[in-house]
Amino acid sequence: MRPLLVVLTILLLAGLSCTLSSGGRQDPATVYNIPRDQAIFLAASQPRTLDPALTYGSPADVVGAIFNGLVTLDSSLRVQPDLAAGWEVSPDGRIYTFYLHRQAIFHNGRPVTAQDVVYSWDRALDPATGSDTATTYLGDIQGALERHDGRAAEISGLRILDDYTLEVRLTAPISYFLAKLTYPVAFVVDRENVIQPNWQRQPSGAGPFKLRRWQDDEVIILDRFEQYYGQPARVEHLVYLMGAGIPLSLYETGQIDLVGISGSSLERAQDPNSPLATDLRVGVNLCTTMVGLNSGIPPFDDLRVRQAFHYALDQERLITALYRGAALPAHTLLPPGMPGYLPREAPYPFDPQRARELLAAAGYSDLADLPPLTYSTSGYGDVGGFVTAVVSLWQESLGVTIEPVLHDPYLYLDELYAGNVGNFFAFGWCADYPDPENFLDILFHSRSRQNIGGFTDAQLDAGLERARVEPDVAVRLALYAALEEQLLEEVPAILVSHSLSAVLVKPYLQGYVHTPIGVAQWHQVERGQ
User: Fold this and answer.
1) Number of structural domains, the chain?
2) Contacts for 408-415 with beta carbons within 8 Å, 24 or more apart?
3) pTM for this entry
4) Would residue 106 count as lying in a domain?
5) Which residue range(s) make up the domain with 295?
């Protein structure tokens, strides 16, 4: 999702991103001359990019309204046809033949063809593009890794049979291949568009909405694409407000139609006497928040130190103080609701004495012998509440000093992928498709691009590779259960919480579904009375 992204500590609801005051703001419908009864108004933050190959967002974001791929996830998280009208799979599960919609066109009127799919995937895997997610979601295609590594000029596993038929050969039969194609990096772009200078300001996708206006840090306006090959969007416009305004205030004054809430705002909405109570929807996200550990350098290259810091974090106290009922303690890597999830007892209950014993066994009986510890996080000057609380708890329980290192939030993920992770780093993951591979394999296989902390275990790699191709569902889930148990013992990251998501939705928004994974659905939502 999270698919992502990697989506590291993803806020699925962009409404949580804005932080400014809304006092005296003029009605955006009037400001932008958008008929309110023909539009959905949302709060958002400035997009990092509108390039599907480079985004870390989900299909629920602006990119997913403008662009689309061969397949999509519906609101029940089932794979459905999108640009592909259908497909066939060979008996050995290695060859997929996709049949494209012949009516699909880009926003500039050009037909979408198999050549466009090949171009889009080749572009995503081209090392010159610099995608951090291409190998994660397209790497099972034969020749994809060679293309990404610069060892091949094209993807050998793609064959165009005709303008509307594409054959895709995989390196191994994996049951979740179609689900991977729902992530934006697999979306189809128009070559004639992306070779133009500053093309993201005038993108030509094939999705249900097209870009009318993007004014930095103020507004993005999307218009319904009337020639969309599927069912046209039920509203004429999507308006994303990025300027001044606290999202909850914008919601209460009727300027936006949906907002994510947490903390005291959630407590307020949960009061049956609150006027917000009837608008509240709460669900479990397929997300796990963790503290990332850099296993490649001391002291966290030592298992005993990783375990010690897990024992030394008072998880219950942290969740109670920060989340106010909007999160569950994480005792597993897989979140509730994910196939293969098994409830477990806390693997590392709060035990400072045990933590000190482990540190002493690792050669740190005097904690002054620990190397300087840094914690990479994002911010513009102030360290966020989560990192402040975690550092304070470790200071209290162990007496260690940890120095936060702030990175520009706009570039934070770039810094992590560049290796600037420090000893600890702000870390989390929300699934992009409902399969345990999307957590355990993507985050912790030694060759995964998303293995930010550099955790390496050859036995784990072998098990993950076996689980990828196991055709029997029950056997496959049992394999993942054993692999998760191994990871819990190895502590590649410190578990914190599974988040609960809460949104306020205006009652006139009909057809909106609060899903545990962000899916493209705004074209299916209409504005009633």
Assistant:
1) 1
2) 408/378, 408/380, 409/378, 409/379, 409/380, 410/46, 410/48, 412/377, 412/378, 413/6, 413/8, 413/56, 413/132, 415/376
3) 0.90
4) no
5) 287-501
